[in-house]
Design a protein that fits this description.
single chain; Diaminopimelate Epimerase, Chain A, domain 1; alpha+beta; 4-stranded antiparallel sheet
Length: 379
């Protein structure tokens, strides 16, 4: 990476957060709220998001600087090789027009190696054009960053949903093989009690512990869901409505989500006469196969990916992804180029990605691995 580009790469915002706002375009409260949204997305769907707001990028092309920042900050989740969530990350580069010496505003989203399938380049460009730049024109930079984050989250979810069953099976197989080989390694250096017990007993203990942990997590979840909630006006405990009762309290879109099983709503009502206090808790199902619709914001989006041209080791392929909202009926079709297939790996290739061992915590610890793909627009 040439020094002329590197000198515009801002300092990595972590571990304080994921946003580097050089000109101070965001208020402290906005920055904290946006950092929190990114933390939630990282925890929920294991995709990294970094944001860089700069006043001046000189003559450097946004895609070039975006790639340099992505690599320098080491964005992208570190997951085992073969895992679909590996290297899923995106860097949002924003230059407010009114601050730029050349009066050229920019929005550019650089995507990681693992996210081209989800945050596809054309879609990244559309996020900038349709969501981010209108907010930037209105000089609402918090809204600009917020819509970039929402757009990327949406694309991640659509990408996740379009994982084919075959990929999912392959993923399960790879994960299982790795777990077994790891267990095999730790067993080899173990002491004699392991040998005396034998693999079946160890497996039984292992499964028993897993069962206990799942039980505890389930119990905590049930407690949090059904714990009594007091009426804020001091009328005592509120009541949880049954599924048929809560339909009367919900909007049409929410009832639709409940019907297709993408979201379950718990509605709590104060039983005191004349009291109108309600608490509605929205619980999305991550196994329903639906993603959030960017149009009506209901969780009713389905997607279908069709391979138009298969990639080979010598040429790129072409895929078409159609998303349809079952509630508002909005349909969106995008096409994207799929990368040339990699040559068969040499026998002893090991990846050297980042220095961190995981993607937990509140800092980037990814591989910073990107092929420089992405999309954006100027205004
Ligand atoms: Zn009340
Ligand atoms: Zn919709």
């Amino acid at each position: 990476m040439p020094a002329s580009v590197l000198k515009y790469v801002p300092a990595n915002p972590n571990p304080a957060g994921f946003i580097r706002d050089v000109p101070g375009a965001l208020s402290g409260a906005d920055r904290r709220a946006l950092n929190e949204r990114i933390t939630t997305i990282r925890g929920r769907i294991h995709g990294d998001i970094g944001v860089a707001i700069l006043a001046d990028i000189g003559d450097i092309a946004p895609y070039e600087l975006g790639t340099a920042i992505y690599r320098s900050w080491k964005i992208g989740t570190v997951a085992p090789i073969g895992n679909a969530r590996r290297d899923v990350g995106a860097l949002v580069l924003l230059v407010p027009k009114e601050l730029a010496p050349n009066h050229q505003g920019q929005c550019w989203i650089t995507t990681g190696r693992g996210s081209e399938g989800a945050v596809i380049d054309a879609a990244a460009g559309a996020v900038c054009r349709e969501r981010v730049i209108p907010a930037m024109k209105a000089r609402d930079y918090a809204a600009a960053v917020d819509s970039a984050i929402s757009g990327i989250e949406h694309l991640y979810l659509v990408g996740l949903d379009s994982l084919t069953a075959a990929q999912a099976r392959e993923l399960a197989r790879v994960t299982e093989t790795r777990a077994l080989s790891q267990r095999g390694r730790s067993g080899a250096q173990g002491t004699s009690w392991r040998e005396r017990l034998g693999p079946v007993a160890i497996l039984a203990v292992f499964l028993g512990l897993a069962g206990v942990i799942i039980g505890i997590v389930w119990g905590i979840g049930r407690y949090l869901r059904f714990r009594s909630r007091p009426c804020p006006r001091g009328h005592g405990r509120m009541q949880l409505l049954s599924e048929s009762e809560d339909d009367l309290e919900l909007e049409e879109g929410a009832r639709f989500e409940e019907r297709i099983g993408s979201v379950n709503y718990d509605v709590w009502r104060c039983p005191a006469p004349g009291c109108t206090e309600r608490v509605v808790i929205r619980r999305s199902s991550w196994r329903s196969g639906y993603a959030d619709c960017g149009h009506c914001h209901r969780r009713a989006l389905t997607s279908c990916t069709v391979t138009l041209v298969s990639a080979t080791q010598h040429s790129t392929g072409l895929e078409e992804c159609t998303t349809t909202c079952a509630f508002c009926r909005t349909t969106h079709t995008t096409r994207h180029v799929t990368p040339v297939l990699p040559p068969p790996p040499p026998p002893s290739s090991s990846s050297s990605s980042g220095s961190s061992s995981g993607s937990s915590g509140s800092s980037f610890g990814g591989s910073g691995s990107t092929s420089g793909g992405g999309g954006g627009a100027s205004y």
